[in-house]
Amino acid sequence: MTALDTRPARMTGTPAEPGLYKWRWPALAVILAGSVMELLDATVTNVAGPTMRAELGGGTSLIQWLGAAYTLAMTAGLLTGGRLGDIVGRKRMFLIGVTGFTAGSLLCALAFSPETIIAARIVQGLFGAAMIPQGMGMMKEMFPPKELQTAFGLFGPVMGLSAVGGPILAGVLTSIDWRLIFLINLPVGLGAALAALRFLPASRPVRGVRLDLPGAVLASIGTVLIVFPLVQGGELGWPAWTFGMMVAAAAVFAIFAAYERRRAGRGGDPLVAPSLFAKRAFVSGMATGTIYFAAFAGFLLVIGLYTQLGLGYSPLKAALTGVPSSLGMIAGMGVAQATRRHGRKVLLAGAVVMALGVAGVIAVASPGVSPWQLAPVLALAGLGSGLIMSPYFSIVMAAVEPAETGSASGTLTALQQVGGALGVALLGSVYFGTASVEITLCVAAGMIAATFLVGLMLPRQAREEEAASPAH
């Protein structure tokens, strides 16, 4: 097959010669559609949560669990989902994921109690974990090096806009009926599944690769042990067992790391490729992303709670109040793309700008604050978010070799979800525990400052790592 051949490349679980897949741009659109659907549902309950609680019942922690149950299930399954893509084929796993996610959305819309909505959110999260990791793997295989940066450049902005646009869509739909925020996934999910059958490249399983089931169990247990007490602890008054669970989580993750190294040393197939941890861009990117996404997800939750529970806004008014943040993020991503040659500096500048925006919200917060008074500072926070989000994935994934893509995409996305779950749990607990948006946003500002400090460890440019990668 020559470089001019436009037939679909045969994906065999190992890297195909780049640039040969004719339908790579339509395939990218399908991958992005799946990501948009997943990310919208990760954020819609920030706005719809109070209304859902009023109808379904439950304590204050239900609002946190609407997001945390979804994120927890997603995180627990991501590493396994990424590996299953290598074992049974990425296209097949994407189809399983998008179909199951759509079914889970229907279950959410039919929920009649706190228990049923949380169970349905878990179903969504588990199938989302099967769908999302396949995207980055297929992108690395479908695109030649020159186009791959553009493809990843689109991935970050779409994710960011979805995360911010979700609450706006939720506000509009919740003003009619909150169940619509899940029912809208049915036509989108079915359309994505049909398009996936047509445009996604077929792939064969990697021969000889087996699922690291003990590693998957350990990773899932560790995630539950750290997220559950953060979400539930505040409502229960922080009993001793909540701190014991968090200590146990650290021990479980230590056991997980030791087990993965031993499995790799014996020639097995670890859930997480140990070679990834020898790459500076990837390791520093994991830390930076975990902290940033915690701050980002927590900030969105706090603004949704503050505008509705603190200021008495309707869901629609609360959602429209967030529009300046969305516009700011769009502007930030545009600036980031225009200044991408500056690499890490763009991301660091974004952390500074986002922190200034959060500080601005603290300064104007008062019982009678209007959406117009919040608009400039929310726009500033959104601008900073866009500057961080846009270059993040291209910098981090540039170091990853094709054979590591499944493990890398699952790991990176899992840490993103862990960060989001931690941010929702931590800032939600602070908000409900203190009833003070100022104190809660001070914590968020501290997390953004930590993003800046850890971000200093990222390589200055993605090309520094690209040059060292056989894939390029």
State the low-pLDDT regions, or none. 1-19, 463-472
Order of helices and strands: HHHHHHHHHHHHHHHHHHH
**Total number of strands:** 0
As for the number of domains, it is 1
Summed up, the helix count is: 19
Structural class: mainly alpha
User: How much strand?
Assistant: under 5%
Instruction: Using the CA coordinates, give the radius of gyration.
Output: 21 Å
Biggest sheet: strands, sense, closure? Answer: none
Task: Please provide a written account of the structure.
Helix content is 77%, strand content 0%. The N terminus and C terminus are likely disordered. The radius of gyration is 21 Å and the shape is globular. It has one domain: MFS general substrate transporter like domains (Growth Hormone, Chain: A), CATH 1.20.1250. Helix 1 runs antiparallel to helix 9 and helix 15 packs antiparallel against helix 16. The protein is built from 19 helices and no strands. The chain has 472 residues and is an all-alpha fold.
Give the key terms.
mainly alpha; 0% strand; disordered C terminus; Growth Hormone, Chain: A; 472 residues; globular
Brief overview, please?
This protein is an all-alpha fold.
Topology (SSEs and partners):
Elements: H1 24-43, H2 45-56, H3 61-88, H4 90-109, H5 114-131, H6 133-142, H7 145-174, H8 180-183, H9 185-199, H10 213-236, H11 240-265, H12 280-310, H13 315-321, H14 323-338, H15 344-364, H16 371-397, H17 405-434, H18 437-455, H19 462-466
Helix pairs in contact: 1-6, 1-7, 1-9, 2-3, 2-7, 3-4, 3-5, 3-10, 3-17, 4-5, 4-6, 4-9, 6-17, 7-13, 7-14, 7-16, 10-11, 10-17, 12-13, 12-16, 12-17, 12-18, 13-16, 14-16, 15-16, 15-18, 17-18
